[in-house]
Amino acid sequence: MSVTPITEASNLISEGIDVEQPTGIVSILQKCDAEIFEGYEDYKSLLHDDTVQTLENIAGHIQDILERTFNELQDFRRQPELFRYCLAGGDKALFTSQEAPEDDPNAGIEALKRASEGKTKVVYIGITCGLSAPYVAGQLDFCLDHPDRFIPVLLGFNPEKLARNNPIDKWDKTFMQVVNRLKERMDSGTTAYILNPVVGPEPITGSSRMKGGTATKVLLETVCLKALFDATHSTENMSVRSMIECYRAVCDAVYSKRDALAQVVNMAGEGLRSGGCIYYLGVDSLAIMGLIDASECPPTYGSSLDDVRGFVGAGYASLKNMEGDISPYGRHFRISLDNFDDILLTEKDIAIVINAGTEESVLTHIRGKQCKKFLLTFEHFQAKSDIFDHVFRIDMPLNVLNELIGQETTTTANQMFREIAVKWCLNAITTGAHILKGKVYKNIMIDVKVSNNKLYHRAAGILQRLGKLDHDTALEYLLRSIYDTDHVTDHIRDLPIAQHILTATPRSKIVPVALVAAVTGSSVEEARKRLDEQPVIRTAIVQALASASK
């Protein structure tokens, strides 16, 4: 019998989140986020000795690279490029989720080759929350083939034994086999690491943009900042444990304002329910957190690309991404504040300004507009009542941070702490808003977009759990919905999963249609009609399940 990975399991804390009011939603998110630091069951946590030691070791390797580079350059101010990213789907994935490229290990290998070209020593950190992404599996495998150049690190949040063991299209290994190969190399003395603390199930089942994304940011920033600190301070070291405790203090500071945050959640939910949209506006990396939050809503909640969008300063000149200006891809890739002016706003829309309440370059884009206006800020000033309908201020725990890591390091890390505080807020806003819109049943993303291998299997799991179906029946109804038919032929069944995903990606309400058809015994056409008549998907699901139980 297969065991559900922790990253795909239901969190008992949040199983009733769909019937909570905004304050209750935020309180549940707070309890779930606390597991990041407090740990989950008996698994090792972010603050476990093994996790701390692994971070120390990885930081040491990065420190060696930093020191060699700085010594060669002699002029520190030249700030050489030391960090590069490989992103499945390229820079487009920064703004619109590009789920399918995660399934291609060969694309991952080619991306890593390009990123590491000309480098003699590379610390590679492969991030896959569920230990499942083929893109990362290919890169890890490539690193293991070239131990003279690469120090591979696998970063995720499941135990190794729960790594995905499904076949990968057009490849000869599973992710589990790559993990086993990595472990064998580690046992034989090869320098490699598995960094996989367990942070508990997500508050919305499988939504790794939340706890998984937060824990990833904490770990990456901690290890890189320590490496930089130790490379530039010959007589003292930065404590990994203290740095992680700083993030815990920031988390506590954010949720200490949960009532104020719940007000924003409520207004955002009202906006989405009435057909409005949420827009994030800002000028720096805090606004980039808005771009990322927005990009994750369509695959998670089946929302449109217009429902939640982010805009930052001068667009790509502010973002400084590797591929430069990619706005020719279409309007959803136009991300400057000037591009925001092209949108015709209504009173249903919500504009959330991120720590730019005194920036005239931002205010000029919202002043006099019909939309509701909110300010999320760290600054202590009296907001202009004629501009903002609501101000949510986060008071950073500077005294605690200074005590933990010292004032110099706190100043250096200040923007990182602010970024993660903004992430917690924005995740709560869009999660709560989609719950209030009816996109969540219990704690399940019932309108998940079936756009990659991981989400295909998640969709089948949702049907099994809610419809009380066996695995084969769940897949049968999933394919019926994908291909819009009541008769799944052997030809369809024999198609590779990649083809099912390709067919499903542009279609809407795949999982709701499949579930309604399964539990009511209706045709796919009848199920779709039922959902069209009841636009609140949670309500339609509740009605279908109730009728099936009679």
Rounded to an integer in angstroms, the radius of gyration calculated over CA atoms is 23 Å
Q: What is the approximate shape?
A: globular
Return the domain count.
3
Tell me the name of the CATH homologous superfamily of the largest domain.
Answer: Glucose-6-phosphate isomerase like protein, domain 1
- Biggest pleated-sheet summary: 5 strands, parallel
What topology, given as strand order, has the largest sheet? 5-4-6-7-8
State the helix count.
22
Structural class: alpha/beta
Strand content: 5-15%
**Arithmetic mean of pLDDT:** 92
Q: What is the CATH class of the largest domain?
A: Alpha Beta
CATH architecture of the largest domain: 3-Layer(aba) Sandwich
Distance between the termini: 31 Å
- Beta strand count: 10
- Roughly what percent helix? 40-55%
The fold-level CATH name of the largest domain is Rossmann fold
Indicate the low-confidence ranges by residue numbers: 72-77
Explain what the structure shows.
The protein is α/β, with parallel strands linked by helices and 550 residues long. The protein has three domains: 38-243, Glucose-6-phosphate isomerase like protein, domain 1 (Rossmann fold, 3-Layer(aba) Sandwich); 258-393, Rossmann fold (3-Layer(aba) Sandwich); 446-549, Helicase, Ruva Protein, domain 3, CATH 1.10.8. Helix content is 50%, strand content 8%. The chain contains 22 helices and ten strands. It has helices spanning 22-38, 49-73, 105-115, 134-145, 175-187, 211-232, 240-255, 258-273, 285-295, 297-301, 316-319, 337-340, 360-363, 398-405, 407-437, 453-467, 471-483, 490-494, 497-504, 510-520, 524-533, 537-549; strands at residues 122-127, 150-155, 193-195, 278-282, 308-312, 350-354, 372-377, 390-393, 440-441, 444-445. It has a five-stranded parallel beta sheet. Helix 5 (175-187) links the parallel strand 2 and strand 3.
